[in-house]
Amino acid sequence: MPALIPTAFSARILWLGVVQSREAALSSASVPSLRALFAGPEGESHGGLTRLSCSRVTKQHRRGTEIRNVRQFSIVSAEELAEIAQRMQLDHLDPAMLGATIVLSGIPDFTKMPPSSRLQGPDGVTLTIDMENRACTLPARVIEAAMPGYGKRFKRAAQGRRGVTAWVEREGVISVGDEMRLHIPDQPVWSHLDKARRGNTGLAETT
Predict the structure, then answer these.
(1) CB of 73 within 8 A of CB of 100?
(2) Angle, vertex CA 105, rays to CA 121 and CA 42, nearest 5
(3) Domains of the chain, each with CATH number or no CATH
(4) pLDDT digits (tens, 9 = 90+) for 106-138
């Protein structure tokens, strides 16, 4: 039986961007289309088949360990981006300041999509959702530099609305205006999820 269910939900791509050098700046540059390769978006500084582990996974890997790169794409929804801006008391929040790769519109409660869901484009290009992209202070610094006094508002405003990270399952071309269809895992929610989240294993960083 199929492991993934094609749904009636789809989203239109409103904006695309690439971070050309994250050492120079987090901000992404707008592009009309991009090639999604197994190593990530072509020309994207966050690409690569592997990456060095960061603070998000220190319970599993010591910082700086080479791991599989499931953060090739940063995807946000236009609806949630507008909500973040409203909570920050801004008329508009430029996705480039967040280092976003894709801005989509059309899928409700986008950030809470099930991990391992797929977004599939017209030519078959397929992105696999890893998980929620947690709000952090890096975009706040970019926002503060452009709009003094607003950067400190970002992290709280973006909690639960920051979008998701994703990696390429099937190569192809992604363009502004494309529709991407949502496919979700044919798997019920684990009945012990709440208990597992409440539990404290007490495990230190792994070596």
Answers:
(1) no
(2) 45
(3) 4-187 (2.40.33.20)
(4) 999 999 999 999 999 999 999 999 999 988 888
